[in-house]
Model the fold of this input.
Amino acid sequence: MKLLEGLFLKNLDIILKGIEKKNLSSNLRSMDSFRVMSYQLDFIPFATPSEAIYFINARIKEISRYSPKLVVFPRYTANLFLGLLPFSKKKLQTEKGLELSAKFYKMLRGFYIELIEVIGKMTGITLIAGSVFSPSEEIVVLFSEGKVNCFTKKDNIRVVQDGYNSIAFLFPNETQDYKKARSLQESGVNIFITSENWKEKNEWLMKTGIWARSQTLGIFGINSAMVGNIFGEEFYGASFVSAPAILTKNYSGFVVKLNDYAEKGVAIADIKMNVIEEYLSSLPKTYKKYWSFTWGGNS
Amino acid sequence: MKFYIGSQIGLLEFDDVDIAISWEEEPVLRKWIKVNITGDEKSINVYKGGEVLETSAYIFSEIDGIKFAAVTGYDSLYPEFYHYARSKNASFVVSYNKTDGMAGFMNIKFRAWSFAQETKLVIFSIIQVSGKVYYGVYGPLYKYKEKNGIIIEGSSRDFLEVSFDEAS
Done:
């Protein structure tokens, strides 16, 4: 941990000097636009500490420039730092090397959580930063209202109250489960975040996830994706913000979507919570009569 | 199973149809049509052998061992109904909606497509948009050759054959 701290955190202090601290959370009770940034990153692990520092610096500057209230990084973001570890070199993948590598995973986890906390405290915004540290464990790091939290797929509660809005994170397969999304929606969640990486350049396939839930349930969905070769498989993104078609430009169901599947970038959108609330209140909730069936009772 | 979707009058040109699906109008009676489904934004009629079998806001029925559901109104806009239909072993659902303008049309169309993806059912979406009837048939993404989940879309009458295996 000390090694990683030495590499990054001292430099981070230097990077953050001169960047104005923005405490935006205090404004969240307003019904005005809620600006979100959803990153699409290419999966090329950092080769040197200076690359990593440049990456962190560039993201902080972007976040400061656009003043969002919510920023989402894709799954595997933390793994970009693995390129810095000597144990990822093939010649060092001995039994001893792998044992040390496992220890490094643990250290990296600690480092990454601390990194997100530092960035979160400096910028004063909500950050959701999905990451995988090993095939057996995936954690999502979440910074909100001054605190950093981590959760895995086993944790049922993944909702943060961020001022006026309730935000929930869904792991990729969970976006297909309307019951999970419906139960969260009924408990007051109005923004759903996920991090799905698609293996095909097929927009219809991409639409089967959180985009489809936006259409059928009437929710805002945010997807943050990686592109490139990840663990031997090619992924094509894409990052987007979705909403019911009736509320989007051109009735596409996308508030914003990155067009190029192969490029890194950031999808930025100003979402208006009062608009979706008005839309939902205009529809009678006739679905409630099916709840005895939906939740496992007799139909 | 052989489906005809479109105006009832068009049925006069087909002599091999199992199920005819139309917006609300008087059914054309032909002895080879096993089921004739018509509906609007308020109710659905299911005819078998020229007799009105049922009239309701939603219906569960069966033809040649294939179960199906038909729905209209607000229930047709929510996933709960389609999952309920699937739990009743329906193979396809016919939904009727009426709207004005492109926004409402796209809203209903995307919902129907999404229901097909999450339930793996075939969805027949009949939408009257500003007086004109639009027909969309949607199914699971990879079951049909275009891999986009769209089997048929358009405002003209159409004829299609759909097989329902155990997985559908």
In short: Residues 36 and 70 of chain A are 5 Å apart (CA to CA).
